[in-house]
């Protein structure tokens, strides 16, 4: 019996611990994709497990219109941890169940607060698979069969300030940007580009939205990637690693967005079990300076891959990324490499398009895990 939409791989995973996944017969895999960047702290993290078990025994779910201390704690934590500067802080939090929903909410909130409908998004960008977020996603293959999607989306070249300046006008509700494009091939934006986006949107009275669903919760070496660039958006979306495995999306927004009181809701918004997992995850990330580890090991890993490329003349065109969000652009297709890494080397990684290997390991990995990845790359590439 198979799932209906996902193509499955011939490795049946039943257990996890730290950066490792195991089959029933005990075969070990190093999870260098953190299962779509979800296992930010590694699998079966004891603190998350304990928080979830405690909450499960107390209360699985209560509707979001009744305050609950576990949910209130998460609202406060996210508001306190959100990026901030002298003029902006993202104190208002909307909780949902996935990344795409967090972006749908951001779209609605921005439209509602500005009374406008045009959205500027980027070529190669990825924002999710529901009809609104999908409309802002670039890849034709994802969109074509489902058109017509939400209208009013204008695409600009990622990184091109002039094109962006031209696109953002008095009809623009929002600009959606990933601070590092993930699915599109791991392309970091320059701090100047993000700052320019801040200036253009501010001037036009539009909302700047950073989709930090992949870059957030420490992945790029700071808690949020936009902190590294020193730019605070009006809305920030998070998901993937935020609850270390339970489904949670969050849309953080500035007062001017929240004060416009968007009509929105979701049955499962902020269920206490998911919130308990997120509280434990965020506490661990902050207390153990997990972003600092991601910065340090990420830099080490990129350096080692570059050194190996030179020393062994590996068929690698480019190594790029930030923290533990790393793309390796290879000269031939990435599919065979991913298969060989998994089946011969016991390492699971991800693609980003046809020619990029995407590394998104748990943020808690150490040099020994990075070394194992580099040795495996040399092995499958020579
Ligand atoms: C994964 C991802 C999404 C979609 O999140 P889902 O939880 O799969 O809906 C949106 N934006 C970015 C940048 C992502 O990486």
**Stretches with pLDDT under 50, minimum 5 residues:** none
Distance between the termini: 37 Å
Biggest β-sheet description = 7 strands, mixed
Q: Tell me the number of structural domains.
A: 1
Small molecules bound? pyridoxal-5'-phosphate
Radius of gyration: 20 Å
Chain-averaged pLDDT: 97
CATH superfamily: Type I PLP-dependent aspartate aminotransferase-like (Major domain)
- CATH secondary-structure class: Alpha Beta
Percentage beta strand = 15-25%
Pathway: Amino-acid biosynthesis; L-arginine biosynthesis; Amino-acid biosynthesis; L-lysine biosynthesis via AAA pathway; L-lysine from L-alpha-aminoadipate (Thermus route): step 4/5
Modified residues (N6-(pyridoxal phosphate)lysine): 240
InterPro entries: AcOrn/SuccOrn_fam, Aminotrans_3, Aminotrans_3_PPA_site, Class-III_PLP-dep_AT, LysJ, PyrdxlP-dep_Trfase, PyrdxlP-dep_Trfase_major, PyrdxlP-dep_Trfase_small
Keywords: Amino-acid biosynthesis, Aminotransferase, Arginine biosynthesis, Cytoplasm, Lysine biosynthesis, Pyridoxal phosphate, Transferase
